[in-house]
Write a structure and sequence with these properties.
It is built from four helices and no strands. It is an all-alpha fold.
Amino acid sequence: MITFGIFELSTILAVPVIMVLLSNIHLQKKKILFLDNKIETLQRDLFQLEEKYTQLESKVETNQNFEENLKKASITTELQQSRLNVHTSQPALPKERYQYIQSLSKSDMSEQDIADILSISLQEAQQLIKLSRLAMPVH
């Protein structure tokens, strides 16, 4: 019969435990490697998402600026339209009109500028300037 001492017996019993522990360590190393790869992938995805977020923020800011500019343009157009309506709904008396045209021409304003201000053609502005000189004596 074979007899084992305590040391031999503990060695024989320790070998399977050591094998299980080594196997467990190997599995943990595999898990760590897998998780490291997963972390790298997630960090790369996070970086890409941050870039996309920055681009979207920029687009939102651009759209907000566009909307503000559009609103300002709409208000300006409404103001100009209402100003035009005032000019067209209450025509100046002929004498006042000629005085106005005469004062504009005296201020060295070109005929084209006067036409633009009054929203009339250049030919009409030229005629009105000539008529204003005839209608109003120059002092």
